[in-house]
DNA sequence: TTGATGTTAGCACGATCGTGCTACTGTCCT
DNA sequence: AGGACAGTAGCACGATCGTGCTAACATCAA
């Protein structure tokens, strides 16, 4: 049944065409016609894979989330909790072009939220998943004795999550900040090992 | 010469109409016609104040930045450095609807960046200004002995800036996080007072 | 009152948009 | 071989877009 596989592959190629367009020309330049041209298709062909624009945008955002989630999951088997946490969280920082474009796509499509409300729901899910990842990392670190016992995990999750997304937001727009972002993340995890007062 | 004053006031009213549209329907719904309708004007009238769409978008973003900067500046005379820092930084968290809409406008128009490159420049300026504010706050706190001397101010600025924007990003989308965001900011400043190792 | 000037109102044009719909093409099942 | 059908290509429609341009209007100086 190679038909359906080709179908999915094609949809991914089209989704990546949306990404390139968002990155290069902004989300305002995304139309069914421009996406078709970017993907090397004709309008009618693209509309066979994505009958409506809403489906196309939702797929493009979901694809970015899935790619990121797959990279994060790849580090699940790392033994040391600290190394595992750093490896996972770094996948959510725009440290290379692949991660940068995912970040741009996520934010750009989020800005289209009110129009296509499915995008808002997708973004909510992704945000909640990242918060859950942060909590998991902190829980593992605490269980391994690498976080002071008097830390409030919920609050630390809020802080780590915000720090992560804030670093991503800045590094996304200035690649020179990539090193600083990774260092800031490391330093923060270091600081958690020390008792509070 | 009340003419020019009315002119500026009108431009601000139009800019706020852009804000409402961005918040309610998304940046994709911003056109000269929809903005004119939102502002209670006819297309021709709006185009007298803003001949092109690029000017309108740039003004709307600049207006958001200026409003925020004015609120920040209002706390300059607070004596205690810690209180001054908290007061200033809180003006950049979406703790009420006014600050929330500014945040949304900033991010939404940033997503239009590649098309209207002036928006990118404006966002860069705003981001640099916020970083400078973070550095100023940290410098003042250190001079007042409220930051451990072994802290690296540059790195702490990166972290504070990222934490601030990350908290804003999250609280913007879920008002329930407003309290958590303010607490996280307070806690972070508290933590800076303790020595590193 | 009249004329100058700045504001408001509106038309028109070419371009582009999303989408419904119809043909054409190739590939696999029977 | 031939029919079924998924996939490709493309037309057409109404709507909306940004913008150049002109006409009506208000306000104040002379």
List the helices and strands and how they pair.
2 copies of one chain form a homodimer.
Chain A: H1 2-25, H2 32-39, H3 43-49, H4 53-73, H5 81-90, H6 97-110, H7 117-143, H8 153-173, H9 178-192
Helix pairs in contact in A: 1-2, 1-4, 1-6, 2-3, 4-6, 4-7, 5-7, 6-8, 7-8, 8-9
The structure holds a DNA duplex (30 and 30 nucleotides).
Summarize the structure in words.
2 copies of one chain form a homodimer. Chain A is built from 9 helices and no strands. The N and C termini of chain A lie far apart (63 Å). The model of chain A is unreliable at 1-5 (pLDDT under 50). The first copy, chain A, has 197 residues and is mostly helical. In chain A, helix 7 crosses helix 8 (153-173). Chain A folds into 2 domains: 1-51, Arc Repressor Mutant, subunit A (Orthogonal Bundle); 55-192, Tetracycline Repressor, domain 2. Chains A and B meet through helix 1, helix 6, helix 7, helix 8 and helix 9 of A and helix 1, helix 6, helix 7, helix 8 and helix 9 of B. The structure holds a DNA duplex (30 and 30 nucleotides).
Mean pLDDT over the full residue set of chain A: 92
Q: Please name the CATH architecture of the largest domain in chain A.
A: Orthogonal Bundle
Number of strands of chain A: 0
The most extensive interface, with participating residues per chain, is: A-B, 41 and 41 residues
Task: Name the poorly predicted regions of chain A.
Answer: 1-5
Number of separate helices of chain A: 9
Instruction: Decide which structural class fits the backbone of chain A.
Output: mainly alpha
Radius of gyration of chain A: 19 Å
Q: How helix-rich are the residues of chain A, as a percent range? A: over 70%
Helix and strand string of chain A, N-terminal first?
Answer: HHHHHHHHH
């Amino acid at each position: 049944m190679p038909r359906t596989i080709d179908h999915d592959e094609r949809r991914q190629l089209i989704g990546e065409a949306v990404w390139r367009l968002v990155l290069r020309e902004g989300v305002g330049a995304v139309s069914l016609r421009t996406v078709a041209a970017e993907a090397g298709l004709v309008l009618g062909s693209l509309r066979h894979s994505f009958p409506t624009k809403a489906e196309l945008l939702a797929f493009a955002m979901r694809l970015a989330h899935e790619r990121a989630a797959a990279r994060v999951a790849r580090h699940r088997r790392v033994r040391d909790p600290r190394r595992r946490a750093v490896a996972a969280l770094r996948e959510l920082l725009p440290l290379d072009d692949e991660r940068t474009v995912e970040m741009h796509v996520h934010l750009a499509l989020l800005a289209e939220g009110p129009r296509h409300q499915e995008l808002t729901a997708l973004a909510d899910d992704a945000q909640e998943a990242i918060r859950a990842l942060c909590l998991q990392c902190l829980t593992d670190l605490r269980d391994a004795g690498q976080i002071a016992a008097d830390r409030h995990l919920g609050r630390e999750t809020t802080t780590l999550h915000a720090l992560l997304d804030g670093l991503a937001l800045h590094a996304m727009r200035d690649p020179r900040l990539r090193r600083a972002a990774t260092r800031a993340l490391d330093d923060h995890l270091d600081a958690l090992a020390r008792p509070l007062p």
